[in-house]
Amino acid sequence: MSRVAHCIDNGPMEGFWGILKRQMYYGHKFTSRQELMHAVCSYIHYYNFERLQRHLNVMTPYEYHEQYKAA
Fold this sequence. Notes:
Layout: H1 10-25, H2 33-49, H3 61-70
């Protein structure tokens, strides 16, 4: 987190949690904390390693990052 009243880095995380809730939480009924934790971990893996993004030249965030490191 940034300093108080300087929340410039808070925006991306707020956006991520909003996407996570819309795509995997709302409309689902979780019966245990363990089930919820597994669902969140699975979604984060999907978000980083499987989800193609048009603005990343139709690559996953991980692929794009690896390509950037190699350059």
